[in-house]
Write a structure and sequence with these properties.
Blueprint lengths: L1 H12 L27 E9 L16 E9 L4 E9 L4 H4 L3 E11 L7 E6 L13 E10 L2 E10 L2 E5 L9 E5 H4 L7 E11 L2 E7 L4 E7 L5 E8 L3 E11 L4 H11 L1
Antiparallel strand pairs: 1-2, 1-14, 2-3, 3-4, 4-5, 5-6, 6-7, 7-10, 8-9, 10-11, 11-12, 12-13, 13-14
Length: 263
């Protein structure tokens, strides 16, 4: 009986969810979606980007390979908080752990029968070098058919970012500049879109336009809480993402009742 109780507890700890992009946000390969888990959860993921398609655009192009370590927490029914660390292994001797970013997602509209879900993504202006900063609005609609499920998204990423000037204090330190002026990254700048086709419960394919290139890939769900994605940028270079999701929605009262029944 104790073994069965442990198994049920683990089922409550792990939760099912959809695909995430390389920054650990619900999405496709590089682009986000408006998918939203109504339950409180914790998502941990790892993403690999090859040098040629790194979001870092520095002169040392052969050293821009990125390993993304991401965590995302759904605190409320309308807000998520994400933390990403961009570790560049070939530059660890110079920059250490790597660039860090905190960002927020807000659910503006839940998906309905005839209307898509709408999500706003925002990066708080706290960084001197906001390479990973991106602000966007995205819409997502799920369509069920007799031959599988289709997930469609479209959105727009702002061409502007807010940078903190270390030479100034307070609100005066915040500067609004274009990503082209900043020069280090043009990630999610303009219109983007993506889709997934899932003919079976344990996998499917992905396709997206990330504002600059067309990317494609496939995903596999070996369990309800684990997702493995392999994808290619323009059919030239390969990358991958792995993510796990853990439910934070425990029901102590129900568990206590179950323990009492065991006695």
């Amino acid at each position: 009986m104790k073994k069965h109780f442990l198994y049920l507890s683990l089922l409550g700890f792990f939760s099912g969810y959809g695909q995430v992009n390389f920054l650990g946000k619900p999405g496709y390969i590089a682009t986000p979606s408006a998918e939203w888990n109504t339950q409180k959860d914790l998502s941990l993921s790892f993403g690999y980007l090859p040098t040629e398609y790194s979001i870092f655009n520095l002169p040392e192009n052969d050293r821009n390979t990125v390993h993304f370590y991401n965590a995302r927490v759904n605190f409320t029914s309308f807000m998520e908080v994400g933390l990403s660390i961009a570790h560049r292994p070939h530059m660890a001797d110079k920059i250490g752990v790597g660039d860090r970013q905190l960002d927020l997602r807000f659910l503006l509209l839940k998906e309905q029968k005839y209307f898509p879900a709408v999500v706003l993504g925002w990066t708080p202006p706290a960084s001197v070098s906001p390479v990973m900063a991106h602000d966007y609005l995205v819409l997502t609609k799920n369509i069920s058919t007799s031959i599988g499920n289709i997930n469609l998204s479209g959105g727009y990423g702002s061409s502007y970012l807010i940078r903190r000037n270390p030479k100034k204090n307070g609100l005066e330190s915040l500067e609004i500049i274009t990503k082209s002026e900043f020069g280090h990254s043009n990630y999610l700048e303009g219109f983007f879109g993506g889709l997934t086709y899932q003919p079976v419960s344990f996998g499917g394919i992905l396709l997206e336009y990330d504002t600059h290139t067309i990317n494609a890939g496939a995903f596999l769900k070996p369990t309800n809480w684990l997702i493995l994605q392999g994808h290619t940028f323009e059919g030239k270079k390969w990358a991958f993402t792995a993510a796990a999701n853990f439910s934070l929605n425990f029901s102590p009262r129900a568990l206590r009742r179950y323990e009492k029944d065991l006695d």
